[in-house]
Each structure stands twice: as structure tokens, then as C-alpha cells.
Amino acid sequence: MEKLPHLPRSLTNIRKYASVSPSSIRILKQAVNSRDTSKLINLSSTVRNLNARPINEGLELSFQLASLRKNLDKYTIINYHKENRLRNLKSKLKELKDNEIVTEDEVKKENYYYKIMQEIKDVQLQELAELDTQRIYEFVYERMRNTKNCLEKKDIKLRKQLELVTHSAQTFSRLRKDTIDSVNQYKIVYKNAIKALNYEKSSLESELGRMANQSKLKKAMIAKTEEHNKHRLEIVEQTMIDERSAHLEELRNGVLIYKMYEKFLSRKLVYEKNTFTRLDEAFQQVRIKTGLYNIEEVIEKFLTQEANYKVLIDNLHKKEIECLEYKEKLSKMQDKVNMLNDEKIEKKHEPEIVKKSLNKVLRVKEKLVDIENLYLKLHIWIDNYIKKAHGNNVAETGEKMNLQGKFVRLKNLVKMMLARVDEANTNNIYIDSLRRLSLDKLKVFYVQDDTRKLSENKAIGMTSR
């Protein structure tokens, strides 16, 4: 079962706003709380004795009526939901009776039926209780509405009287206040007018003095500016003439320097072109002879061949020593063979030993032949590279150089070619830097060049002396 809402404000605060005995209030509370309709008979006498206070009673009654309306709406909604629930339960009970639901457990059936019946009874009791409370609230609402109407009429009368009294008092106070304000305003306006006149008089006098001083200063400034402008025009004309002459001089010097620089560069360019063509022809001959189109590869090969040359020389020395040893052994073995042939010793093992020794001698001879061929090939290869480096313009000398001397010669040729390439690169960088120089830098450059040449000439003269 749902509880009733809290006791309305009209009953809880009734002692506060009305001169009613506590016994009558107690009776009214019991009638509401117990929901007994028989006790409502005594309510009429208690409500008649409620003499509300005139101040703020209309507002209190309006609050009470609003709370009663809310409670009525709430309970109507609750009753509606409960009626729907009762209707649903009745329909369920009817369906159960019609369909005669057979379950396995009879005890569950009875409990289910008993539970539904109990819920129906509870809902019916709640409905009766809600109807009782609704009747009580309707009765109280009616009585409160009547009292509200009476109090509203009294309130209207009192408000009219109060409005008349307040209106008359307000008009009187307004008139008094307006007169006082107008007098004060007239006094303030009079004082402000006097102050404004005095201030305006003093400001006009100061303005006249300031204007007189400004007129004097302006006259003096105009005279000074006229003199200054005349002097300035003279200076400007003189400076323009000087600037034009200086600019013409600079242009003449620049043209002369440019012509000198152009002649110098053209001569240097012809010289550099010739050197480049000679170097290019030499490189082309190197490319044709060697078959390598990248000069760096040629240099790398020459440098690596020097390292290989050292290894080959060491191997040659070793092989020469071995050849000498083998020659000594051969000579000894040949002596032994001659001795054996002369003595003609007939033994079984001697022919085999001789055969082995002869085989060794033959192998050593073959190795010596291979080493001599390799030595000749190295000589031929170095001679060919030297000829290619010189462009087949080498004059054959009667002197015979050893392998180490030929390698030294080839190394010197490579160094000379690299030095030429570096010199050509430095000349190119120098020409590019000269092309980027401005006229001022060219002047400085030519002055430095002249001083350098003079110092060199002096040094040459001193050495010749």
C-alpha cells in the first residue's frame, strides 16, 4: 500500500495563521489521518471558527489551494493506475479460470491463486482508502475556497483604502521633494554660471596673450626659414654639381679599368685555351693508347702498379737467389753425372737416381725460362706505358735501364701529368674569381698586382747586382 502524502500546508500551519483552539486542530488532523468519513461532521464547525489574519492570508490560501490541486491530480493518477492493475488482475484470473491451467505441482497452483486474490483485495482496500482521502480533500478544498472568496473580498476593500491613503501621501511628499530639489538646482546653476564666467574670462585673457606670443614667434620663424631655404638651395646646387663631376670621373675610371681587365682576361683566356687544348690532346692520346676514358682510373692503375712492382721485385730477387742455388746444384749434379759416366759403375740403383736428378734439373730449367719470360714482359709493358705517356715521341737511348729505373721514370711522368691538371684547375678557379669581382675590387686587385710586380722587379734588380 502506498502512503498518503505529507499533511497539507493548510493543516500544519493552521495554528500559525489562525486563532483556533488546539482541540479543533487536533480533530481536523485526526479526520484527515484516519481517513474516517464520520469525523468530517465536526470539520464544518472547526472550519467556521478559522478566522484568518488579514495580512498575507490571500497568498497563503492560494498556496494551499495549489497544493490541494496537486494532491488531487496525483491521487487521480494513482487511482487510475490501480484500477488498470485491478482490471488486469481480474482478466488474468478470468483467463486462469477459463483455461484451467494444469501444472505439475498443485501447491504452486494454490499459492499462485491465493497470491492473486490477495493482490486483488489489497488493491480494493487501497482504492477505498484513496476514495476516502479524496472525499476529505474535496471537502477541505471546498471550505478553503469559500474562505478564500471571503478573504479576497476583504483584501480588495483594504487594498483600495490603502491605495487612496498612499496616493495622497505620495503626492504630498512628491510636491515637497520637487520644491526642495528645484531650489537646490537653482542654487547650483547660479554658482556654476558664476564659475563658468570667471573661468571663461581668464581663459580668454590667457588665449589673447598666447596668440600674441605665437604671432611674434611665427614671424621670426618665417624669416629664419626663408634664409635657411636660400642657403639650402645654394648648398644643394653645389653638391649636385660636385656629385655629377665625381660620378663622371668614376664612370671614366670604371670604363678604363673594365677595358684593361677585358684585355687581360682575353689574353689569359687565349693562353688557358691553348693549355687546355694541349692537355686535352695529351689526355686523348692517353685514352687511345691505354683504352681508359677516365684519367683517375689510369692514375690508380699506375699507383697500384708501383705497389705490385715492389712485390714483383722482391719475388724476382728471391727467384734469382733460387736460380743461383739451382745452378749450383745443377753444376754439382752434372759433375756427379760426368763422374758416373766416366767411372761407368754398374749398379742397379744408380740409373734411377740419375733419372730423378735429371728430372729435377729439367724442372728447374723450365722455371728459369718462365721467370725470364715474365721479366721480359714487365720490361716491355713498362716501355709501352712510358711511350704512351710521352705520346710515342720517346727517343730511344743506347742506355739499358733496369726494371726499377723504368718504374721510377713512369712514376715521375704521372706526377708531372697530375701537376698539370692541378695547375689547370687552379687557373680556372682564379679566372672565375676574377669574373665575379666588382669594379672596386678590380681596382684593389690591379693596385696589388702593380705593387707585387714592382717588388718582384726590385728583388730581381737586387739579385742581378
What does this structure look like?
The chain has 10 helices and no strands. With 465 residues, it is mostly helical. The chain has 2 domains: 9-178, no CATH class; 293-464, no CATH class. Residues 1-20, 44-55 and 392-399 have low confidence and may be disordered.
Quick structural overview:
Keywords: Coiled coil. This protein is mostly helical and 465 residues long.
Topology (elements, then pairings):
Elements: H1 9-12, H2 14-17, H3 22-34, H4 43-48, H5 57-99, H6 106-290, H7 295-343, H8 350-390, H9 403-436, H10 439-464
Helix pairs in contact: 5-6, 6-8, 6-9, 7-8, 7-9, 8-9
Observed structural traits:
465 residues, mainly alpha, 2 domains, 10 helices, flat, disordered N terminus
Unreliable residue runs: 1-20, 44-55, 392-399
Largest sheet: none
Number of self-contained structural domains? 2
- Global morphology: flat
* Rg measurement, Å: 70 Å
- The number of E-state strands comes to 0
Number of helices: 10
Which class best fits the helix and strand makeup? Answer: mainly alpha
Q: Report how far apart the termini are.
A: 144 Å
